[in-house]
Amino acid sequence: MATISGLGVGTGGLDTAALLTQIAAAEQTRLTPYTNRQSSFQAKISAWGQITDAMKTLQTTTKQLSGDAFNTQKLSSNEAFTATASAGALSGTHKVVVTQLASSHSLATDGSKVSDADERLGTNGSGNRTLVIAHKNGEEMRIDLADDETSLNQIAKKINQAEGDVKASVVRSDEGYQLILTSKTSGEEGQMSVRVEGDDKLGEVLSYDPALGKNNNMSEVGEARDARLEVNGIKYTRPSNNITDIIDNVTLTLNKVSKDGDGEQLILTKDTSVAKTAIQDFVKNYNALLTQTSSASKWVANDASGLQDGEVATPNSQNGALMGDSTLRGMVDEIRGISNGIYGDSDADIRALADLGIKIDAATGQMTLDETKLDKALADNPDQVEKMFAGTSSNPGLAVQLGEVITTYAGDEEKKIEGTIKQTKDGLDEQLKLVKTQIDKTQKLIDAQVERYRTQFQNLDSVMTQLTGTSNSITAMLMQYS
Fold first, then answer.
1. What is the torsion angle, in degrees rounded to the nearest 10, for the CA atoms of residue 228, residue 230, residue 236 and residue 238?
2. How far apart (Å, rounded) are the C-alpha atoms in residues 222 and 103?
């Protein structure tokens, strides 16, 4: 906006600075239509953003109610093992007997042969030698050792730097220093053999062949064993104590051998508390969304008081930013229509939200929840509640259908889908840029026009000053001759 300077009350008696200020203010009103549009676009973008956030929060709940919320199992507490269940685990009872835990193979050098962990144990001057650690499963580590890398500390360092399937450490025992090798692969497949190629002297410290038993330079301090257990009378052998492939969607972690060889009952029962929490969140998040859409579409009657004949009332400033928006109206209609729908089997007791204790206000669409009725429905008919929300592949339930509508409008980040609202906001952003360009262009025109008036007023001041001076001179001359 142009600044007003260099003007004042000229000798002609005109306050040109005040006049120019009034003209500049009048010129600025040319921006009003554009700034009003700018504010309108900004308000619409903000409103759609708030609605999108509310929809995505509700979308999280609909995804839970589409299945996961009803697939949580409550598991019994057991001593010989612990169990965890993932989505898809079925209720039921299983007898589990743990007869043996899996363990990793572990070997140790002879402590009586090494009194200093930094002592070189290989043949000096023989160049590189190779330490070979092989597993029963066929995996093999080959570690080259230089002359100055044959101490227990250096060997352990080289093994660990290789980041293979063996962990090495050096310990001090009563007899001396020992190198401990532990397989990272549990079970019999992790059984190790050790040899040194290119250095017989070091091989007298580091060598182990399972076939030789106790006739080895290294001793076995941890046996390679598989886990053994029975589930429902069937015997299983596994290399690890974490077992995922016996009971569908259940992980068994073996802790110890079953007492006296007796098994324990693993009991899985459906945990309805997760579904209840998800339904409570659904009601809360649904109401939050409807609150946002109602605020954005609100209409308040125009104030026509005090208007003269022929004058038109301006829109009320309390109207929602998206009042009359057809996209918003269609979206709300779809959401409310789905929420009032009937789902599930025709002979089921639970087919609508009302059967769960959820009432919907016909005017506002807001939900209220009767938790006592919800608890009873989940206790008596959990499968029907699940089917009402999740449905089937051929007959999708309420949560699935509502989730699809939300994805249509708000998109889905996980599936990389952009919804209708994103397209609408992009369109508003483009219009906002065009309005900003028009505002900048109009402001330059206004500034140029005000500058022209300022120049004209300066010229007027100069002319008036000259005229006043001439007038004073003539008056003075006349007075001399009078």
1. -40
2. 8
Structural domain span for residue 235:
73-101+227-270
pLDDT of residue 11: 43
**pTM for the structure as a whole:** 0.67
Helices (H), 120-220: 152-161, 200-203
Any domain includes 328: yes
In three state form, how does the secondary structure of 82-118 look? EEEECCCCCCEEEEEEEEECCEEEEEEECHHHCCCCC
481: exposed, middle or buried (Cβ count in 10 Å: 0-12, 13-18, 19+): exposed
For residues 349-375, give the mean pLDDT: 96
> Has residue 445 been placed in a domain?
yes
Distance in angstroms (rounded) separating the CA atoms of residues 350 and 393: 19
Contacts of 450 (CB under 8 A, 6+ apart): 2, 4, 20, 23, 24, 27
Residues 349 and 391 in one domain: yes
The predicted structure's pLDDT at residue 414: 87
Q: Which carries the bigger pLDDT value, residue 318 or residue 118?
A: 118
Which of 162, 187, 222 is the last residue in one of the domains?
222
First to last CA, the chain: 54
Q: Which of 100, 73, 79 is nearest to 247 (CA)?
A: 73
Q: What is the DSSP letter of 6?
A: S
CA neighbours closer than 13 Å in the CB half-sphere of residue 9: 1
